[in-house]
Amino acid sequence: MWILGIDTSCDDTGVGLVKDGVVVVNLVASQTLLHQRYGGVVPELASREHTQVIDGLMQQALEEAGLKPADLDLIAATRGPGLIGALLVGYTYAKGLAFALGKPFVPVHHLEGHIYAALAEHPEVEPPFLALVASGGHTHLFEVRSWGEYKLIGATLDDAAGEAFDKSARLLGLGYPGGPEIEELAKRGDPRKVPLGVPLEGQEGFAFSFSGLKTAVARAIEKGYPPADIAARFQQVAVEHLAQVVTRAADYTGLTTLLVTGGVAQNAALRFQLEASGLRLLFPPRGLATDNGAMIALAAWRTQTPNPGNQLALPAAAYLPLNPAP
Ligand code: KG4
Ligand code: ZN
């Protein structure tokens, strides 16, 4: 069974092809260079670029897999959440294709895509487990109770983890996206030299918070601490905060498997920190951590129903909660 997955929720155009649950093609047209000079994603520019590249990327994906459009069995696209103008490009393209080909169409929640990306090489894993989605737009911790049943345990009170990396990188005069830039600079810094505290330390709940950290970075820059030391301390504190919350959630729920996904999951310091938790850790393979189309096809593969019905009527949605479990 061939599934096409499309994601245009933010600044990457993603087209993926999955055969019987295995990723065969995963093409991402990155807009990083386009948005870099603005220090963040400009929504209108993102939508325009998606419109320009989506059809060519789709043709290339079919070519690489040796397929004709009629060979596709199911078409899936990100319905939300995301930038509405950007989402609409891929979502409407996919709907049109499904309608023209007479194939079933499956709308996918973007975070569900991120979750299934981390399971790409672990088909044996079964719920329940914890899933931390840490990206530029989200810091959400879910308890996945059964397939399709997600209980939100904790989320950020303000900025997302990736957003904190991006904003702090900008303050430090680094490029966009900030995560990899901070990770690189941090290698040359000494975290012990900068007094930044871990957010919400001692809390009883499972909330995340990153905006205070960003402000603390701004203050440390004003005080003249060396940028590499600030980057090192910022990263240490950010990953410690993430690790503290998920470890406490694991203790509370009794769950022993943690899936970590989204762009921030690529951070080596975070992986290292989490390894000390003793939890079974699942990360997405290379190329599937940041936004892509294959993860959307993987989610459709796992959650498909034999007869998905007419889902063409569902509109794209900038704000879309993931199925809350009772
Ligand atoms: O999942 P993603 O591609 O897009 C969203 O859905 O937001 O995540 C992008 C985010 C950016 O904020 C970027 O700075 C962050 O992931 N990121 C990282 C690393 N690589 C990407 N953050 C920390 N360390 C990294 N190595
Ligand atoms: Zn994402």
What would you call the structural class? Answer: alpha/beta
Mean of residue pLDDT values? 95
The portion of residues forming beta strands comes to 15-25%
Bound molecules: 5'-O-[(R)-(carboxyoxy)(hydroxy)phosphoryl]adenosine, zinc ion
Instruction: Please list the strands of the largest sheet in the order they lie side by side.
Output: 3-2-1-4-5
Question: Helical proportion?
Answer: 40-55%
Give start-end ranges of low-pLDDT stretches.
Answer: none
**Pattern of helices and strands:** EEEHHEHEHEEEHHHHEHEH
Number of helices: 10
Describe the structure.
With 326 residues, this protein is α/β, with parallel strands linked by helices. It has helices spanning 32-36, 43-65, 84-101, 110-117, 161-171, 178-186, 211-222, 227-253, 268-275, 294-303; strands at 2-7, 12-19, 22-30, 74-80, 105-109, 129-134, 139-146, 149-155, 257-261, 280-282. The strands form 2 sheets. The chain has a 5-stranded mixed beta sheet, sandwiched between helices. α3 links the parallel β4 (74-80) and β5 (105-109). The protein is globular. The model has no long low-confidence stretch (mean pLDDT 95). The chain binds 5'-O-[(R)-(carboxyoxy)(hydroxy)phosphoryl]adenosine and zinc ion. Residues 10, 135-137, 162-163, 165-166, 177-180, 183, 262-264, 266-267, 290-291 line the site of 5'-O-[(R)-(carboxyoxy)(hydroxy)phosphoryl]adenosine.
